[in-house]
Write a structure and sequence with these properties.
This protein is globular. With 149 residues, it is mostly beta strands. A 5-stranded antiparallel β-sheet has the order 1-2-9-4-7. The protein has a 4-stranded mixed β-sheet with strand order 8-5-6-11, with no helix packed on it. A hairpin with a 5-residue loop joins β5 and β6. The mean pLDDT is 92. The protein has a single domain, classed as Jelly Rolls (Sandwich). Helix content is 5%, strand content 35%.
Amino acid sequence: MDWKEHGVKVIPGSNLDTNTAQTPGMNRAAAINYARVGAQKIWAGTVHIHPGAKTGAHHHGELESVIYVLKGRARMRWGDHLEFTAEAGPGDFIYVPPFVPHQEINASSDETLECVLVRSDNEAVVVNLDIAPVEAPEPVAWIDPIHKA
């Protein structure tokens, strides 16, 4: 195997590809995908949401997504009518299962929300949805099924 050509690849943060599927209210940029590095099973990149902004409702088909919050405060809404909500801050991970309608909201009015995003396929699948959200979503706290307090 030619490990020089087919080995580790370092993608500078200044060289991300914004020519990827987008959802209104956020800016996605791809670092790792099939076209850029030959990735077979993952997509990774960044997402930025401006202060006070929220995305349109969407899902990612069969893909699982992981969001790692670098900076800011993320408010997630999800469900058929975005009826559930939870928040995450720097150092927190967010897991989004396949086909779950969701919306990302920057909970801060003065700080950009910056996250790293990883998906379980090499292409960015985004299905934008036209959902009438409930007015007052129900807060949901995550309980670890393995390490219950």
